[in-house]
Amino acid sequence: MKTKQTLLNYFGLLLVFCLSGRAMAQNAEIIGSVKDELGALPGANIIVKGTTNGTNTDFDGHFNITNVNPGELTLVVSYIGYKTQEVEVVARKNEPVNIGDIALSSGNELDQIVIQGNNLPNQQKALNIKKNSIAIMEVLASDAIGKLPDRNAAEAVQRVSGVSIERDHGEGRYVIVRGTPIAWNSTLMNGDRMPSTEGTSDNTGGTRSAPLDIFPSEMIKYVQLSKAITPDMEGDAIGGSVNFITKTAPSKKTLNVNLGYGYNNQAQKPIQSGSLVYGDRVANGKIGFLVSGTYWNRNWGTDNYELVYDQDNQAINNLQLRDYLGARTTTGLNTGLEFKPNDNNTLYLRSLYTNFKDEESAVEHIFNFDDSDMDVRVRHGIVDINMHGIEFGGDHKFNNGKFDLDWKLSTYSAEMGNKKVKGSDANTDAYLMATFSTPVTYNNLTSDGYKFLDIDSPAGYNGDHYDNIQPYLDAPVTADQLLLNNKMAYPAFSLEDDYTAKLDLTYNANDKLRIKVGGKFKRMDLERGTPYTYSLYLGNYYGAPIAMSDFETRTFPLKGGYLSEIGSPYNNVLVENTIRLDQIDNLFTDEYDANPLFYNIKFDENNPSSAGSFYSGYEQVMAGYTMADYDLTSKLKVIGGVRYEHTNLEYKGHSVVTDADDNTTIEKVKNNNDFGSLLPMVHLKYQAQDNLNVKFAYTRTMARANFSELNPTETISLLTTPNTISRGNIKLEPTYSNNFDLIGEYFFENVGILSGGAFYKALENVIYTGRSFQTIDGNLFQVTQPQNSETGWLAGFELGLSKRLTFLPGVLGGLGVEANYTFADSEMEVPMYTTNASTGEVEVSTTTEKIPSQSKHIFNASLFYEKGPLSFRLAGNYKDASLAMVQGNPENYRWYGKNLTVDFTASANLTKNMKVYVELNNLTNEPLRYYQGVSERPEQTEYYSIRGLFGINYQIF
C-alpha cells in the first residue's frame, strides 16, 4: 500500500504542475486535426512548406507541430489516396495556434468507389501509419477488422503478413508472429501486457500467453503489430508485439447497432451476435465519452480421433473417438471518458470488462488395445474466464509544445474459475468426468498383443490406414455392458492481478531532433491451482455395479454425425445409446455417492495428488529507457536508444515426496530471483522517394520464462527405478534475441503496397524442458526440469502485395488482390538420450531441432471486390507444419500439421447508413492435425465443419 500511495502522490503533483503552468518559449506551435467525411485520418503527413519541419497525425487524427518560426506559412497535408492540400496559417510567437479540422477529399482515381461502408478508407489509414512510421510495423483499423469474418482478436490478426494462429475447437486463440513460439510474442492492451488466464493441471501448465478468444474484435479500434520494437515498448517480444488499442471517445456523435444470426453445421445449432456503440462529445467538445457492448454466442461441434503410442516400438496403445458439443458465449463492455480542457491537456479514463464462458460436453469411445477393455468416457464442464481493468492517464504539452508528457495508471485482472467455490456450486467451474468400462476382445493384433499402423507394421502384419484405425471387435458394445469404473471432478483456478504505472516525457529539441525518456513500474500477482477429486468403482464397491443403461440415454451420435468427412468409418463400433449429457451431474450427488465429490473439493493445497499444481508468485519489473528520433537528412531518419528492465521474482509452491512405502509428505517451499536486461535498439528509415521506404532495425529483445517453469514445486517419487524428480527452475534466464530486420515498402497511388524484407534472430538461453540423471544420496534420479540451452537462430524473408486493379474496365475495376508470404527456418540445440545396449546406461548427446511452433511457410491471400454498394472478400490462410513438442527421440516428436482455411465475407449498402453482410468460415472444412514424427502417424485429428453468419449494421448517426 505504501508503494501505491507514493506513486499516487507523485502523479498527483505532476498532474497539478502540468495543468497549472506553462513555461515561456520563443517559437510557435500549430495544433489541428485531419479528417474526411467519415472521421479522423491517422498517419496523415503535415509539413511546413519549404522546411523539413513536420509531423504525422496520431490515431485520433490530431497533430501538433512545434519549433515553428512565427509568421505566415503554408502547411502541406498529404495522405495516400487523397488529394494533397495546402493550408495557409499565421503562426504567433509564444501562442499555440489551433487551426481546427483539415478536411481531405479522395483522389480522382478513387472517385467511383463508394467509400461509405467499404474497406478503402481503413486500408488508407493502415498504410499511412505504416508509411510514416520509422519502425517496422503493421496496422489494422477497426472497420477493416469488420470486413473479415473474424469475431475474436486472434482471428482478426491472422490476416497480417507473417502472422499465424493456433486454434481451439476451430476458433483462433493464440497469435504467432513469424513462426516463433507463442511465449515469444507479447500481447498488449493499450500498451500494457494483457494478463494471462492459462491454468494448469500439474506443474507443466501456466503460460504468460493471453487467450484471445476471450476478447471480441468489436472492442478494437486499431491493432498495431510491431515486428521490431522501439525502446519505449515492453522488451519481452522476440517474435513481435501485438498491441490492441481499444475504442475511445469519438470525434462526433456516434450510434451504431450490429446484429447477426448464423448457424454451425457441425453442431447444427445457431450463432447469435450483437453489438452497440454509442459516443458523443459535449461541453463544446471538451468532454467525450463512449460506451460499447458486445454479445456473441456460438454453438460449436468437433469430431475428433486421437491415438496414444508406445514410443518404444510405435505400437498403438489406444484409439480415442471423441465427439464434442459446446456453446461459447463472449460478452464485453468497453467505456471511455475524455476531458480536454484546452489544446494542451487531455485526461482520459478507460475501462474494460469481458467474460468468456465455454460449456463443453463430450462422449469418448476409448479402445484400450494394451488392456483388452473398452471405455466410454462422458464429460461435462464449464470454463469461465473474466478479464477486467481500468486505466487513468493524461497527455500534456507545455512550453509551446516543446515538451510532451504522457502518464498512465492502470490495473487489469484475469480470473479463470473461482477459488472461493464450495459445495455443489463447484460445477460452475469444473469438468465432471465419468468412465464406463467393459472387457472386450480385439482382433487383428500381433501375436504378442500389439496393434500398428500400416507404416509401422512388422513383417506379415496388415496394419491400419491412419484415417481408418479399426478396433475389430467381436461384437458391438451396448450400454448395459458398460459399468461405471471411475469418476472425477476436476476444477481449475487461475488468477493474475497487474498494477502498472508509467511516465513518458518527450522533448522536441528542434525540427529534426526529438528526445524521449520514460519509466514503467509493474507489479504482478498470480495464483494457480487444480485440485481434483477422484473415485474408483470396481465391482460392488458401492453395492451393485452401476451400468450406463441405468441412466436416461440418448441416441449416439446425434445429428451432424461423426467423422462424416472421412466416410463415417466408426458407425459400426459406436455405442448406439449413451448417457444423456444432462445426466452426468447426477453421478456427483448423494444418490450415487454418500460423500459427494464436490464437497471434498478444497483449495487447501493438501491433496497429495494435486498439491504440485498449486503455486503463487509475484513479479515486479522496473523499466527505464531513453531514445532519440533524429532526421539525419530529409530522406534519412533514425531512432536510437536503450531500454533497461530489472525483474524481481518470488514464487511459492510445494515439495511433494512419495517414499518407497507409498507415503506422501507435503512441505511448502519458496524461491526468489532477480535479473537485469539491457536492450539496445536502432531503427533506420530511408525514404528514397515519396512512395518508397527502406527500413532497417537492430533490436535486442527477450522472452521471460513461463510461470510454470518458474514454479518452485518439486515432485519426488522413490517408487520407481530410477527415482524421479520433476521441478521448476526459478533461476532460469530469459531467452534473449539479437534481431536484424531489413524491409522495403513501395506504396501505390491508388491505395496499395508492395513490400519485401528479411529477418534474422540470433538466440541465447532458449528455454526447453531438460532431462538428466543425477546421483543424490547414493540413489540414481531422473530429473526433469526446465533449462537454458546455449544458442539458436531463426531467419527468413517475407513478401507482401496489396493492389487494386483499377486499370481493369468497367465493373472489373473494383477487383483487388492481397497476398503475403513468409518463409522462416530455425535451429536450436536440444539434448538426446539413448540407452547403451551393453551397459544399460543412459547416454546424452546434443542434436539440433527446429524451434517449437515455427512454421517454414505462412501464406495469406485474398481476392476482393469493392465498387458501388457491393463488396466481397475471399480469404485464405495457410500455415505449414511446425514442431509442437520435443518428446523422446525425433521419430516421437509431436508436430502440428499444415493447415489451410478459407473464409468468405460479403456486404451490400442498402442506404448510406445501413448495410447487410454475410460471413462464412472454414469453407473447406480443414481439419486440425497433430502427428508423431511423420504425418501418416496421427496423434490428433479434428474436424469443425462450416459456420456462417448473416447480419445487419446500422449507423444511426
Automatic annotation (TrEMBL):
<keyword id="KW-0732">Signal</keyword>
<dbReference type="Pfam" id="PF07715">
    <property type="entry name" value="Plug"/>
</dbReference>
<keyword id="KW-0998">Cell outer membrane</keyword>
<dbReference type="InterPro" id="IPR012910">
    <property type="entry name" value="Plug_dom"/>
</dbReference>
<dbReference type="Pfam" id="PF13715">
    <property type="entry name" value="CarbopepD_reg_2"/>
</dbReference>
<feature type="domain" description="TonB-dependent receptor plug">
    <location>
        <begin position="133"/>
        <end position="240"/>
    </location>
</feature>
<feature type="domain" description="TonB-dependent receptor-like beta-barrel">
    <location>
        <begin position="443"/>
        <end position="923"/>
    </location>
</feature>
<dbReference type="InterPro" id="IPR000531">
    <property type="entry name" value="Beta-barrel_TonB"/>
</dbReference>
<keyword id="KW-0675">Receptor</keyword>
<dbReference type="InterPro" id="IPR036942">
    <property type="entry name" value="Beta-barrel_TonB_sf"/>
</dbReference>
<keyword id="KW-0798">TonB box</keyword>
<comment type="similarity">
    <text>Belongs to the TonB-dependent receptor family.</text>
</comment>
<feature type="signal peptide">
    <location>
        <begin position="1"/>
        <end position="25"/>
    </location>
</feature>
<dbReference type="Pfam" id="PF00593">
    <property type="entry name" value="TonB_dep_Rec_b-barrel"/>
</dbReference>
<keyword id="KW-0472">Membrane</keyword>
<feature type="region of interest" description="Disordered">
    <location>
        <begin position="187"/>
        <end position="210"/>
    </location>
</feature>
<dbReference type="InterPro" id="IPR037066">
    <property type="entry name" value="Plug_dom_sf"/>
</dbReference>
<feature type="compositionally biased region" description="Polar residues">
    <location>
        <begin position="197"/>
        <end position="207"/>
    </location>
</feature>
<protein>
    <submittedName>
        <fullName>TonB-dependent receptor</fullName>
    </submittedName>
</protein>
<dbReference type="InterPro" id="IPR010104">
    <property type="entry name" value="TonB_rcpt_bac"/>
</dbReference>
<dbReference type="InterPro" id="IPR008969">
    <property type="entry name" value="CarboxyPept-like_regulatory"/>
</dbReference>
